[in-house]
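Many groups now describe folds with learned vocabularies. In that spirit, our science desk offers one protein's residues alongside their backbone shape tokens.
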Amino acid sequence: MQPFLRSGDYVLASRLYMKIAINDLIVVNHPRYGRIIKRVSNISHTLGVCLSGDNAESVTSEEMGWVDRAQVDAKVILSIKDKR
């Protein structure tokens, strides 16, 4: 998720605020890539959510595919930058 999130940053994610919108950051338990944080790029009632990364070297939305809403673990509600 660089440049928005970098190694060493902290995130606060919650399952209480699960109304998901485009551009939200969410924590997903992806079947191929494991537990990841990605940005929501599209939402479909039948397909789930389409995810993207902020980094040009990130896995593409096409490679990741649509993710079922049941795989969404939490929504990121706060990020704290590492000052080191």
Q: What stands out?
A: The chain has a mean pLDDT of 88. The beta strands are 10-14, 25-30, 34-44, 48-52, 66-67, 72-80.
